[in-house]
Design a protein that fits this description.
Layout: H1 9-19, H2 24-31, H3 35-43, H4 50-60, H5 64-68, H6 73-78, H7 85-92, H8 108-123, H9 127-148, H10 151-170, H11 174-191, H12 194-211, H13 214-228, H14 235-254, H15 258-275, H16 288-301, H17 305-314, H18 323-340, H19 343-356, H20 358-362, H21 365-376, H22 383-392
Helix pairs in contact: 1-3, 2-4, 7-9, 8-9, 8-10, 9-10, 10-11, 11-12, 12-13, 12-14, 13-14, 14-15, 14-16, 15-16, 16-17, 16-18, 17-18, 18-19, 18-21, 19-21
Length: 394
Amino acid sequence: MHSLPHDHTGARIKRLRLERHLTQRALSDLSQVPYSTLTKTEQGVIPASPHVIASLARAMRVEVATVTGQPYVTELRADELDVLIQPIRESLDVYDLGADPDITPRPHRMLHDDSEALLAAVRKGEIKRTAGQLPGLIIEATTAAHVAATSEGWLLLADYYRTAYDVASKLGFPDLATIALSRMEWAAERGSGAVVGAIYRYMRSLTYLRAGQYRTGQRLIRTGLDALGQAESGRTRDVVTGQLHLGAAVMAARAQSGDTAVGHLAEAERIAVATGEAAKVYWLAFGPTNVGVHRVSVHAELAEYDTAARLGRELAVPQQWPASRRSHHYAEVARAQMWSGDLDDAFANLLRARKAAPQQARYHQTVRETYDGLEAAKRQLPDTFLSYGSWLGV
């Protein structure tokens, strides 16, 4: 048996199963996870894939975060990020109290520029900086929106709520991410923003993807596409439409519906040919590169790891592409390479994920599960592998 931390994902699955007085066979039947996969996962012989984690969480009626052990409190405390979460919660809680009489908000343009700077910072992987600045800006933008009562003000507030969602989801706080999304919807409705409303549905669908509730996630994608029918035609609408198809492709693949996933990828690719690279349009990073990145993810979710690893090797991700997206992609490729037996290349991509966006990679579930899988492979890896585990906190 390899040396994993006592509370690795497999150990948590076993503990949760025993608390519910379930045998391995019973949990396998309830979750439709193969018995051999469950037993090996509990033992730490193989890592848990997102599909397996979601299926087991659903069967045991717990949140996915309970299975994965998120948020990683010890690491958050070490990075002094834990103290930044409560102020964000508090800033999200004053949305309906009207204007704060003690705050004189700056002009809309200045608040807009700060919002764009935070959106850019998140995509550079600067989570701590963003989390520190965000609460005060949300409170200021909240007062500004109530005072002005204009579409522009409400949609700007929706952008700040979106950033709160980004921070919460990247740090492993699904409950806070859900609150941020509900606030985003609330503000988008007041701003009558069809495009922002569609982006909200896209982001909300991702929370259902992580929770393994694929049917609901697919319904949200469909309503998002319907909402875009009310938006003005043009490149912006096309970009958001393409991104929704990419989200739908991964959703379908996670639900093991390969034909549907391929269909959504094809539609996204068709749109991307017309839009070209549009990384900064609502900071969705849409374009041909993102289609290629999602193609890797789709094949990985379908357990076609050799194909995913090959596509990952062949895809050239531009250095100017958002660091957070590059980091996520490298983690996905590492997972595929680990499953296909390319252990050295898998670790090399974990290193790339850390270099691109270290704060994000440290709290990324795929990074951690892939690290555990490499450790379980009982193959000599360089000394830097152990130091990487120390950095992760495992």
